[in-house]
Specification:
CATH class of the largest domain: Alpha Beta
Distance between the termini: 28 Å
Number of helices: 13
Shape: globular
Bound molecules: adenosine-5'-triphosphate
Number of domains: 2
Strand order of the largest sheet: 4-11-12-18-15-14-13
CATH architecture of the largest domain: 2-Layer Sandwich
Amino acid sequence: MSDKTIVTLEKIVALCKRRGFVFPSAEIYSGLNGVYDFGPMGTLLKQNIKKLWLKNVKSFDEEVVLLDGSILGAPQVWTASGHVENFSDPMVDCLNCKKRFRADEFDLTKGCPFCSKKELTDVRQFKLMFETQVGAMADQTSIAYLRPETAQSIFINFKNVYSTTRVKFPFGIAQIGKAFRNEITPKQFLFRMREFEQMELEFFCKPEQTDKYFDIWVQRRKDFYISLGLTPEKIRLRPHEKDELSHYSKGCKDVEYNFPFGWKELEGIANRVDFDLSQHTKHSGKDLSVFDQETQQSFMPNVVECSVGVERLFLTLLFDAYHEDVVENETRISLKLNPKVAPITCAVLPLTKKVAESAENVYLDLKKAGYNVQYDLSGSIGKRYRRQDEVGTPVCFTFDFDSIEDQKVTARNRDTLQQERIPVDQLKNYLDNLLKE
Ligand code: ATP
């Protein structure tokens, strides 16, 4: 078995299509740019990502509670947050080749990055929020926005959550949900989409604690990615330069991953100070400060935000796990995903149809116990192993003629290809060990 991995975006896109991870949305109508549907494997992978993220952010000493805010947002929210005014990207068109692109991604003094002609329009600000109308009357008063981030639902509900849960400072509010951005150029597959899911934690603390918790969360977030199995050498932290900082932020660090197309942001961690709660206090007229019993004074909570896209992490995990090696003179593709992340934890494979019934009972038993398990009877055993390798299944249990006699199956490891006999009544233990942290 010799490793000869060269991973490219094209290979990942093809694998995602072939194995039911990701399909272009409305593909039978030639698709919708920047929008994707997730197939059976992709849905399971997304579920695991979200479950692990939530488990992680809730695993520390401080309390973290949940919120599920609406996607449609009142315009006042997005005016107060600064998005109506500031949430745009600089856009430029080439009058020669008609390409449209982000002006901040290229050196415009060299002309068009696609055809080199110096026939570019002026740079215009392109609004990234999707605007829609609510109700039967379509006028200025019926405007609503699809949220471009989940964070604002948390800020506008801060007082509701604080007063109904009696949480103590510092504490977090976590949310996983859809966000929409009319990106000028959606690209690199799941990296930059127009509809995506965010996992955001807004961590509220007293102003004097903000710098400390910013550092703490930066380290926790980096550790999380390593715990998922991402290659540590491909992860780095990059502080934002002063001129890069968003309008709301006092300091920001990105967790970056070394993608085949370069080091790029995987997650942003921002010190938002009291920007959001102060803005909503000002615009709504409702005081969002809290009273501190200890000091007998009111204060405006500060916020440390950790924000990552589910699909961006999905893509990162696939890039990191993708392997090609040569087994018996054939190229074998496998996803070396951490078992906790892998969409399927194990497959049960009867060696022949003659043992299918007994093998199916093993499968049903594991399925009913709640494991993500697949049963596959079609094709040679080699082909069935390959299919499981490509979706990252860490172990296959093969049921053969001896299994009927000795009630053992052969467990075949995805990464080492080693095989061992395991008693059927030990399979759940075996899987639990595999899924342990
Ligand atoms: P960029 O500078 O790349 O446009 P951003 O800094 O505006 O991104 P944030 O607002 O910090 O992005 O978003 C937080 C996280 O949400 C990002 O780190 C990324 O994981 C995810 N994300 C943002 N935009 C997209 C998108 N268009 N498609 C997929 N994921 C996204």
